[in-house]
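A brief tutorial aside. Many learners find it easier to grasp structure tokens once they have seen a single protein encoded end to end. The record that follows does exactly this for Lysyl oxidase homolog. Read the sequence first, then the structure, and try to relate runs of similar tokens to stretches of the chain.
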Amino acid sequence: MEHSYWWSHIVTILLGVWLPACNAQTTPTVRPSPSPTPEASEQLKFRLAGHPRKHNEGRIEVFYKGEWGTICDDDFSLSNAHVLCRQLGFVSATGWTHSAKYGKGTGKIWLDNMQCSGSEKSVSACKSRGWGNSDCTHDEDAGVICKDERLPGFVDSNIIEVQVNENRVEEVRLRPVLSMAKRRMPITEGVVEVRYKDGWAQVCDIGWTPKNSRVICGMMGFPHERKVNKNFYKLYAERQKNYYWVHSVACAGTEVHLAACPMEFNQDNATQTCKGGMPAAVSCVPGPQYTQSSSMKKKLKISSTVRLKGGAQYGEGRVEVLRGSEWGTVCDDRWNLQSASVVCRELGFGSAKEAFNGARMGQGIGPIHMNEIQCTGQERSIWNCRYKNITVEDCQHTEDAAVRCNIPYMGYERTVRISGGRTRYEGRVEVLRTGHNGTQHWGLICGEGWSTKEAMVVCRQLGLGYANHGLQETWYWDGSNVTEMVMSGVKCTGDEPSLSQCKHHKIVNCQKSAARFAAGVICSETASDLVLNASLVQQTVYIEDRPLHMLYCAAEEDCLSKSAAKANWPYGHRRLLRFSSQIHNIGRADFRPKAGRHSWVWHACHGHYHSMDIFTHYDLMSANGSKVAEGHKASFCLEDSECQEGVSKRYECANFGEQGITVGCWDLYRHDIDCQWIDITDVKPGNYILQVVINPNFEVSESDFTNNAMKCSCKYDGHRIWVHNCHIGDALSDEAERKFEKYPGQLNNQIS
């Protein structure tokens, strides 16, 4: 059996084992003693279960000796919860629950009278009555509430799980047969094989239906199945030695994993044949994103009324739907893998790998359009599923639903790596290049012009989340023997799946060719996401004629238009368009200035530090997109003005304090502070567009840059101004946006 690299790409999913409830008999209380340590071959697993719950809370369940079981709440404490939360991959616990708050579990109650100090690395080091020795019922199942912060490098497996009867089939692959198919990505057709012991086994195709194929294709990242040429595979099978472990598969077509389908297994000593049949083979239809044929791309349409926002990878993000002309989110009540799979297939991906609740991909803005969605899994669109309309009391954006879809394996990570960093999330970028003679070698990327956008592509390509920084010098990571610059002039939009799809010089042209000037990245599992309160801008806008003698500081900080330099200072005035800006961080990481406080610049005129050169662009534009007035604003102070309930302020500018915006908080720039304006002294009466862009130079990483711009319609008669229809750049449908402005959006700050 061949073992090519891409054969190792396997779709896996965490599967639960659900057993009948069995309540233990009451016995006298015994003194806790250290829990017997599981043998080396016995690996403990942990999960959160029950409902209703968020992703970081739930009934705690332990997998021991082949069975899932619960923990009794007798003697339970926050110290116990700390140990359990760390084993689940969270940094610590914030609380715990008793009396089966998240519902009663089933099966064993593995631990009772558990007592941890809080510093143990495993619950097996804590005192208890011993494994399986309990006098509790499932009415006493304990739960934990973990801090929503992951341990560095921990693989996130805490998902809304698929419930199956047996945990027997875990890994599935499509093995291509045609030599051409082996070289082409993605692999859309092949023999279905399941992991068996140390190898792979085939599935007997007797009774195999298109519904089975639909499940397999969904696992492999494809939205649809198609008819396969059975005659070809029959000829192939006759020349091969096959081992049939699985037969009589009977999927309904809505399952997200083959293991959730009814099936039968051959015993080790049973006849390993498939009399009258052959190995099951499947052919899948890829979504348009993964189709190389231009004619097929035109035929394959994806939904224009559903989208994913805020995810680091393709096929993941917060679910948003278009109703009328406005995008809105989906509430996570009853959100499950079936409903999530409808969204994934609708967008050209496979079935859902994970269904997230609790705003795991960040909070949305604007309306929440749908609640309590109930899909069967067969629907072509989420709009065809049963759902409830939202009332104000139903949901908050802290309950926004999200999804991670199965996507086709493309092998992108094989052509890039990072080296020299302290963790796997940082390092100097090295790319695989093929020479004229066909040999492959690793090489560096010139750091000139390297930015956050290029770093975003590298982090995505390696599956390392978001880009925290794109670095133009990497002398401190000089530990590799790779020294040749093989790529320069790299320019990405930030949306590409791999660096090879970004623009770059055909011939390497790098002024600083030493390895210390090679490009580097720092990636992160989470990122901030800033968004402006559009309605507050509309409510607070007004015009002020401000005397020049009160604008010396503003002139020093370049907050007035160029004609101000020719004014007769200190006489006369400037006409200012003022408004308040309230900037929210709705992401999953704090927004921090790129520069450390040691490099902040002191401005004596106002008595404050600048932590970023430019934090926002304020512009007034004509209908054809040319700028008639501009007013850039340096971020002289980034701090938490107010926060959501339950969120504490972290950043304050006073006394040279740390600057930033905490997740769930917002920074308010009142209309009456310096530079919170656009100088419109030279603007003639007319109709205009007011535009505000946050983080315009992409200096700081965010999970979503498309919501950084806000636009309003303006009418100015020379004395008064009317502002209406203020909205975030991606809040409206394409058609509504075209009606709003008859020119493409402009994000630079240059006057035409």
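Self-check: The domain at 45-146 is CATH 3.10.250.10 (Mac-2 Binding Protein). If you spotted this yourself, you are ready for the next section.
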